[in-house]
Amino acid sequence: MMNLKEKVCIIGSGNWGSAIAKIVGENTERHSDVFEKEVTMWVYEELVQGEKLTEIINRQHENVKYLPGIRLPDHIVAIPELTRAAAGASLLIFVVPHQFVKGLCDQLRPMIESLQQRTIPIRAISLIKGMSENARGISLISDVIRQTLNIDVSVLSGANIANEVAAEQFCETTIGYRVLDHGMLFQKLFHTHYFNVSIIEDTTGVELCGALKNVVAIAAGFSDGLEYGSNTKAAILRIGLMEMMRLCRLFDPHVKWETFLESCGIADIITTCYAGRNRKCAEAYARTGKPFDVLEKELLNGQKLQGVLTAHEVYGFLESHHAVEQFPLFRNVYRICYEGVKPQELLKGL
Amino acid sequence: MMNLKEKVCIIGSGNWGSAIAKIVGENTERHSDVFEKEVTMWVYEELVQGEKLTEIINRQHENVKYLPGIRLPDHIVAIPELTRAAAGASLLIFVVPHQFVKGLCDQLRPMIESLQQRTIPIRAISLIKGMSENARGISLISDVIRQTLNIDVSVLSGANIANEVAAEQFCETTIGYRVLDHGMLFQKLFHTHYFNVSIIEDTTGVELCGALKNVVAIAAGFSDGLEYGSNTKAAILRIGLMEMMRLCRLFDPHVKWETFLESCGIADIITTCYAGRNRKCAEAYARTGKPFDVLEKELLNGQKLQGVLTAHEVYGFLESHHAVEQFPLFRNVYRICYEGVKPQELLKGL
Fold first, then answer.
1. A196/B228 Cα distance (integer angstroms)
2. The complex's ipTM?
3. How near does any CA of chain B get to the CA of A24, in Å?
4. Is the overall model pTM greater than 0.90, yes or no?
5. What are the two backbone dihedrals, phi and then psi, of residue A201, each rounded to the nearest 5 degrees?
6. Residue burial A81-99, b: 16+ Cβ < 10 Å; e: rest
7. Where would you tag: which of A119, B1, B143, B283 has the fewest CB atoms within 10 A of its CB?
8. Strands A139-140 and A131-132: what pairing?
9. Cα(A304)–Cα(A292) distance, rounded to whole angstroms?
């Protein structure tokens, strides 16, 4: 038997992608029996003060734009061409804004199809939060990767604000798998003493938790902006969790209840609803009355707010299932974000 | 059939007891077909600026000492003698510090025994947080009431910081019952548009949640005092919830998983770990190193911190079940509170 090692490519290099690159780089070195030490990272090329970001990362070992102040392992190699970054990789980590996934997979497809005879199969894991819309209302990012590349895809999600992970503050995360061996392999790739990885056989539950919690965080932000107290906020989080659980089971009856008790469930709801940017922008919306696109410019440098997008996709899904009225919190968030309803209506019908 | 109405007595008049008196008074008036409007409230008599507290409450309709600024319904009648307050009552609401329950029940016992031939039986509900110790490690407050008075006892617990409830901010709560009719009757007595009551057939789960969450809040306070971030705190809350669930099942295998998804479970953990006084004192402990009895004097007017007491009782229970090492968070909180271990050891072995 040949001793082929797993070769890792990280597709994406934002705040979360860079924090993950630090962990993955530490682990490919630690578990050198399993992984090739060198990790490639596909970086969307841009100029930072006149210099290419890939060149800065490869020289300074720091993503000065998206994760300043954190040193990346020297063997993280930034590459601006996607197919060159992914060439030879057996493990693909997707960590890009969800709207770019399809295009990136289309670029990778010819190469991966030609490699299906490799000894080590290619497997992927998605760290992407969000979902896309289709005729049924919701489609999963991991399904886009699966269907485009015809490979197995696991999912990672948890209470993981990127800067805190990069600072090595203790937290937990959850990997949802379909193939146990792949779940265990990715656990080995991501687990550290400060980043505690659990695995569960439920990719759909883990992925939907990561997307839906942002809708709950919008509600939590409204609650803060309206200066409701901590009992009310706790009730919103609890009701949000219940609606997440019911929506997941409506989407796929195989989603497990236990998934919601993992880090990707309650813990991520808590951290997102107390410290995340969806909460922050929604609070500003309730306080100032400024439209979300203005707040996105002011607070997020123009980036789209995930929870507001997801609220739209969720509402479409609920409508197509004639189930809107069974999800009053998701309904109210949608109506406040898209139909001009006042934030003061947040608790209506809960 | 005689049209006998339920007569309510509230035993206790602290911050939470007074907030509950407001709700109960509103509901006995609203549901006058079921309840006698007048509600008696046993008040531990004390002097406030030279005047008896019962007299102030009955004249001003305000508990100026424990819930200042909140008007109580005029038909809440404060009475300093316990047996006079409870005379004729069919529904007893216990809301006193847990160390006083046994003595109060002993006082009530002769009267209640002599009344067992009444048409309407006497039923109780406990709103008390905490537990007492016995040879087995833990005994429930509701069991003390049940065994002393030989009556059915329901339990109410939830994400209910008293001042916010008194200010009519929306929240939820949970009633655990053994007899469905009693659960529904108490739901009618407590439910309002801002205090949303769910019922579940699980008194033990609801009661243990109310006690154990304070131990988790001590851990959350240490985390804040150590300036750990929000991922870490979310992990502590999640691990705390898991240990609560496992401890409850070790105590009584009939406790239901669903109970932990009610307000008494996750929602109460959240509000207690973000806004409660157990969290606050534990944060001060980690920051200042002052002993808990000093902090109790400085921050709680000498009142004992519930979570620190409960950590002791829990540890005794776990020791007697040879299960300490399966509960690392509860173990670490105990060791920090009682064995001089540094708060920095909080995450050890999680």
1. 16
2. 0.94
3. 19
4. yes
5. -85, 75
6. ebeebbeebbbbbbbbebe
7. B1
8. antiparallel
9. 9
